[in-house]
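Thread: quick sanity check before group meeting

JM: Hey all, I'm pulling together slides for Thursday and realized we never actually wrote out the predicted structure for the chain we discussed last week. Dropping the sequence here so it's in one place. If anyone has concerns about the input, flag it before I start.
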Amino acid sequence: MEDSYSATDIEFSVVVPVYNSSMILEELAERLIATISQLSPNFELIFVDDASVDNSWQAIHDLRKEHGNCIRGVRLSRNYGQHNATLCGLKHTEGKFVITIDDDLEFSPEDILKLVEKQRQTNKRVVYGIDPKKKMGWMRRLMTSVFRKLEKTFNENYHRGSSFRLMEGDLARKITQHVREFSFVDEYLAWYTNSFDFVLIKTEKSSLTSRYRTHRLIDLTKDLIYLSSAVPLKIATYSGFTIMVINFLFGIRVIYKRLFLKIDVKGYTSLIVAILFSTGAIIFCLGIIAEYLGKMLKMNYGKPPYNEVDKIG
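JM (edit): ok, ran it. Output follows.
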């Protein structure tokens, strides 16, 4: 099936980060094509292979042979993570609107129609598909809950996002200017617009094994908190101030007893406890600052967020 339209005519671009999903890519592509065809004959599907260790890259080749020019592919030299792979795909889009969706069929391709309908109704620049009843493991739910609560508390631009989203093409390509080793698509979008909307969807249980292990979830949540907000620094500031006030009041109490009540204050134990507690708090705050400095240093190295080694189309 060869398409005759030119790149400038593309209405919808769909970006799919791919990792070890060769067994379901054909079904995913067929459902995406069937859905997008209802909206426009001019579309493209861009699959970004994030260094899969199965036959995903060959599967993308096969999809190109079967469906023609609407299928495009990019292969990365190593695994850079979902957000970086998504940003790589966004860079290659040419559509008026861009849709991102996972490769595991957890999000139904047919729900793209809901995203488009909501965008046409509200004219928002970004529309997310959200499942408030999405089932997750306890660790993933805990990490997600911690991050969202902290962000909502300290970040006035907080918005709940997901990897299933529709955005204006110009906006999608604009955020690729900021790619770095630690990249988060939703954070970049919030830099440029507050024009967000949401549509409720129902997710399905993925047939693929989750790529987010416990340690990976912890690291991801930590990076999200450090790189998308100043929450840890604010916590350190508030904690330090609280400790300072407590110690100050404790000191006033001791001085008052000694000078005015003529009470001989024997406070060796309490003094040691206060010193150790204060020292621990100081070291904790310095550790947070060190984390920020470490992240900044890594970003200044200029380490590439991804490296393309092959392309299709």
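AS: nice. DSSP finds ten helices and eight strands in the chain. Residues 1-7 have pLDDT under 50 and may be disordered.
JM: adding both to the slides.
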